[in-house]
Amino acid sequence: MLPVLKSTLKNTFIYSIGTFSSRLAGFILIPLYTAQFSVEEYGMMGIMEITSQVLLALLGFSLYNAFFRWYWDKKFIAKQKSILFTILVFLIFQISLFLILVLSFQQDLSYLLFDSDRNSYLIRLLILVSGLEAVGVVVSTLLRLKERAAFYTLLQVVKLIISLLSTIYLIVYRNRNIEAVYEAQLIANVVYLLLIFNVLRKNIELKFEWKILKDMLSFSLPLVLTSLSGIILNITDRYTLRFLADMADVGVYSLGFKVANTLRVFLIASVNLALQPIIFKMMDEPGNKRFYAKVMTYFTFGLMFFVLFFSLYAPEIIKVISKQNVQYWNAWKLVPVLSFSMLFSMLRDVSYTGLNITKKTKIIALLVISAAILNILLNLLFIPIWGFYGASVATAISQVIYFVAVYIVAQRFYSIPYEIKKIILMICVGILLFTAGLLANSWPLAFRLVIKLIIISSFPFFLYWFGFYESIELERLGQFWRKWRNPLGWRKNLRKLKLN
User: Fold this and answer.
1) Is 304 exposed, middle or buried (0-12, 13-18, 19+ CB in 10 A)?
2) d(CA 172, CA 187)
3) Cys-Cys crosslink for 82: which of 207, 315, 370, 433, Cβ 3.0 to 4.6 Å?
4) Nearest Cα to 94, choosing from 61, 121, 66?
5) What is the largest CA-CA distance in the chain?
6) Buried b / exposed e across 466-482, counting CB within 10 Å, b at 16+?
7) What is the pLDDT of residues 338-350, one digit of tens each?
């Protein structure tokens, strides 16, 4: 099992480079946004971001999943190039129709989203960027199918740099407002497609496959519903705040959510990308269920360090990235609740293993839809009482219940001996350490930074005190310490890892 875990970690690192690059721009630019935009304007941008997620799911039709399924099917090997052409033509056609439809109602949509009919230009930009992103997902899928990992990563880095530089130039030197963010994304997406045009040209045959398209749509449309339900689960909080509170509350909540969501974007997503193929590869191997169980345990163990880091250092992080703009400071109180909710979202993802192996996609869809409905109801209940604090509580409760439901249902179809007692222990220890760390918030800056770091570092030692580790794990930890304790040997060790 250890070689598989090592392979998973290696693949996680490779995937994380692409994921990290594609998401880094939004995080780097937070200080610029909080300095240049008011809380209300940042709230508008938050609404734009979540609306973009909905549009991407709708405009993409989840056809990239069908592309994965059909591309290596023996029956369609000879039609790989015409299948790609078919998907792209269909996407471009329906995106164009959608844009024409939106143009007829752009002022109404502007008023619905922003309480003003003066933001029609933002609506048009949003559709264009979302449409290009939908096409870009299919193109990226081609690179993954071709195993062009280096080229894929290079393009993501180039796209990041262009988006960053364009945004900074438009906001700082051209005095543009929120529209600059999406104008920069538009530029970056166009350049991305131009750079990959030669690859597309070599992998396209100008032949439209009507029958195959119908089959692919039949396959992908149920996935659109599942995808939309999952998105609704993650964005209900901000939409509900928009209609039950005000745009300033959306701005504060969006900042807190973006900081906590760093866990999902940069860590959870990267590990999931590496794990997904390995889970199915291990499906018929001896000891596969122990592997699945240890994935949940080790994933929780590693992620808890970052949950504690973001939770304990939330006041300092928010003050730094908001450049001392006091309007945003309350966002730090949301980060711990949302960070722990990210942990439960990871546990839920891992718990889906049994349902994915047994192909219970209808049950998965039902669970996602039920969780989305629960999240809507909890937001409607808590936001009128506690405002954006209520939204974070609703999100956390939804994720906990969602995880429990998936775990119980998945175990009925494919029982995996997850180490739930250890999971609960890690969560309880994490909450205990976080609570202790809150006491340091009133202390001098330098002192509390050190104390919080000590608290985070104590996490594995508290687990040892509670008998968390197995003998083999303690032995492996000892070997790891002896191998990496001397910095002079790191270069040699890294070279060995690369060769393996």
Assistant:
1) buried
2) 17
3) 207
4) 61
5) 68
6) eebbeeeeeeeeeeeee
7) 999 999 999 999 9
DSSP code, position 76? G
Structure tokens at 317: 């992080």
For residues 111 and 44, is the Cβ–Cβ distance under 8 A?
Answer: no
Total residues found in the chain within this entry: 500
CA distance 273 to 342: 17
Cβ-based neighbour number of residue 97 at 10 Å: 10
Contact call for residues 182 and 122 (beta carbons, < 8 A): yes
Judge whether residue 490 has pLDDT over 90. Answer: no
The answer to whether 395 touches 238, Cβ cutoff 8 Å, is no
User: Hey, CA dihedral for 436, 438, 443, 444, is it positive or negative?
Assistant: positive
As to burial, measured by CB atoms within 10 angstroms (0-12 exposed, 13-18 middle, 19+ buried), residue 118 is exposed
To 5 degrees, how large is the angle CA 129–CA 131–CA 136? 90
CA distance 72 to 78: 10
pLDDT of residue 131: 94
Give the pair of three-digit tokens for residue 227.
């995808």
Query: Rg of the chain over CA atoms, in angstroms?
Result: 23
Q: What would the pLDDT profile of 97-145 be if each residue is shown by its tens digit?
A: 999 998 888 888 888 888 787 788 999 999 999 999 999 999 988 987 7
Of 1, 4, 3, 2, the C-alpha closest to 277 is 4
How far apart CA 470 and CA 422 sit, in angstroms, is 11
Structure tokens at 404: 């429990």
pLDDT of residue 465: 92
What is d(CA 381, CA 17) in angstroms, rounded to the nearest whole number? 40
CA pair distance 107, 184, nearest whole angstrom: 23
Provide the token pair at 131. Answer: 């449409």
For 72-148, where are the alpha helices, taking DSSP H only?
80-114, 120-145
Which among 443, 371, 456 has a CA at the least distance from the CA of 407? 371
Out of 145-149, 378-382, 495-499, pick the least confident.
Answer: 495-499
CA separation (Å) from 138 to 123, 161, 216? 23, 21, 13
Fill in the amino acid letter for 493: N
Interatomic CA distance for residues 340 and 291, integer angstroms: 24
Task: Quote the pLDDT of residue 17.
Answer: 59
Six-digit token string for 265? 């974007």
- Burial of residue 42 (number of CB atoms within 10 Å: 0-12, 13-18, 19+): buried
The residue that leads in pLDDT, 202 or 115, is 202
Residue ranges per structural domain of the chain: 37-221, 245-468, 470-500
Contact 97, 126 (CB under 8 A): no
